[in-house]
Amino acid sequence: MASSSGSSSSSKSRRPASSRSNPPPQASSSSRPQPPPPASSSSRPQPPPPASPSSTPPPASPSSTPPPRASSSSKPPPKLPKEEIIVDGIAKTCWVKFSQEATFALYTPFIVCVASGTLEVETLRQCIAQDVHFLKPFDQAFELAETYAVDDDDRRVVNKLRKITKKKLNLHDYFVQEWGSDVVKDTTPNPATSKCIDFLSDTALGKIDGIKPLSRGFTPYEKTKLAAYILGAMTSCIRLNAYIGKEARGIFSEPRYNKWIQNYSSNSFQDFRLQTEKVLDKLSEALTVEELGIVERVYSQGIKHEIDYFLAQPLIQKAIVPLSGEHNLEDRRLMIFSDFDLTCTKVSSSASFAELSVLTARVSEQISTENQIAHMTSSDLKKSWDVISEKYRDGYERCIKKLLSTEKAVKKFNYEGLRKALEKVSDFEKKENLKVIESGLLKGLQLKHIKHAGEVVKLQDGCMNFFQTIKKKNAVDVYVLSYCWSGYFIRAVFTKGEVDDVKVHANDLEFVESVSTGGIMMKVQSPIDKVEAFDKIILESSEKGNDKKKLLSVYIGGDVGDLLCLLKADVGIVLASSSSESLRRVGKRFGVRFVPLFSGVVKKQRERVEVEVEGSSSTWKCLSGIIYIASSWAEIHAFVIGS
């Protein structure tokens, strides 16, 4: 069972969604106009009120209308309303908006091999040569930005940044000394490097898609605007490299690559990044909403060009990423498993059903017609849901607390001990689901309204994109294992995203002529049910495979109920959130280790070199006692599928 109330809990599937909002930002002292922040929306899905049998649910109305496009005149427009001001500046806004794209650069084979210390030296030599080809136009772009900057202070800072860029060319000189030869003399820019150069050069000359080319006699405001566009393109590259250096630092110490990693992770480079961002913020102060949108666009394009740049580096050895790459599936067949509530969605499905039942009763009261739940008013239904949710949450927390207090912490991974302990949680879940059935709270829901509720449910950022992309891979089966009361609801979510062939293992509501009776056909309602379903799928898939390939299973979850599946899968990944706290507390009690995904991938890359020497087929194995922590669906996407 999942909680349907509006209060929070540490348990993922029990925690109802909350609509958190930040206090309104304070007005900036600057008079610059700025783009509005994204419209906020409640994390709780709002299913439409059920209509009469002859009608269909109305589409969800947008929460807000987009602001009008601003003029791109030579004079800045009036200051925007207080609530639309971005206090932290355009540089931070861009990074927050596009940081998930940056994750894809982190998981490129080149970066993973560098961080693991397994990269072939020849690949690094080629990369340094391409760096030099790119840094020269980078320097020229800084020179043009300095020329366009109207303010003397801005020009001085840009000039200083340009000098720092020149010093970066010294990294090339260091490697020439190390290798005893100048590889740059023997290379030309590869296609990806050439595209980076062209992008930077075109931006510096004002050749940007969607904007009018500047005439020769452009105004000081137009000069400042162009300088901001140049800094937008350059800042994205600098910010991305600073991020990669920081993430890769310290995982392994390999002398050949330390200099490269230290160059981008050093305090001096981080300071270089901060100074560049400050200049971008200052140059963007007077830009219109539309012009700030152009800064965002070139920033995003800069990150994408950098990703292509890393992907273009000629790798000699096999890399462990992306997991679904052909080189990783030569002798293994990939299977993807996922939890649903609060792993895929932003709110538990039980909260959606609670809302839908209340709305169904409310509409029935308004149109004064009899229906299946006329024995309860909408007010009584809401109170009943609140009571049953609160009792469930309290009982669940007591159950977990009792489990942790009675089980002695162990250092060595103990799967059987964990499974036995979770049987108590299973008993609790079954009793709570029985209470929901006996309450009759789900009685009277129409199948078409459940379908529509699934179609409008809010998903975690990047979730549907992951499933849409992975399904394009040949011979990759995708399964959803969930406590949700309705597999039909889950299928509606994925069908809306045009992912029709996801195999759903969940419970189902009982219906008579498309109206629910209040009963539930229970199939998956506990950690034990989940892992038994997982084991059965794995067994059947192993037996029916004609290609004799071993299975490579990935399970994505976030709740205590997912623990056994996460551990039985070859790769278990939990999304980092407050909802996974109980999972980690229970797992650690039985010797489970939780490792950041990137760090784990880098270590596996190093192991891969070792197992290839030993003749082993894979470094990913089930029941290792390790669960990996991912920050987002974008990170999972980058690891499993790649860019």
Q: Please give the share of residues in helix.
A: 40-55%
- What's the end-to-end separation, in Å? 37 Å
Quote the beta fraction.
5-15%
Give, in order, the helices and strands: HHHHHHHHHHEHHHHHEHEEEHEHEHEHEH
Overall structural class, as computed from helix and strand content, comes to alpha/beta
CATH topology of the largest domain: Rossmann fold
The CATH first-level class of the largest domain comes to Alpha Beta
Q: Superfamily at the CATH H level of the largest domain? A: HAD superfamily/HAD-like
Protein described:
By secondary structure, the chain is of the alpha/beta class. It has two domains: 82-106 and 108-320, Heme oxygenase-like (Heme Oxygenase, Chain A, Up-down Bundle), CATH 1.20.910.10; 333-640, HAD superfamily/HAD-like (Rossmann fold, 3-Layer(aba) Sandwich), CATH 3.40.50.1000. 52% of the residues lie in helices and 8% in strands. A seven-stranded parallel sheet has the order 3-2-1-6-7-9-8, with helices on both faces. A two-stranded antiparallel ribbon has the order 4-5. Strand 2 (477-481), helix 16 (487-496) and strand 3 form a beta-alpha-beta unit. The two termini are 37 Å apart.
Structural descriptors:
643 residues; alpha/beta; Heme Oxygenase, Chain A; Rossmann fold; 2 domains; 7-stranded parallel β-sheet; two-stranded antiparallel ribbon; 21 helices; 9 strands
What's the short story on this structure?
The protein has 643 residues and is of the alpha/beta class. 52% of the residues lie in helices and 8% in strands.
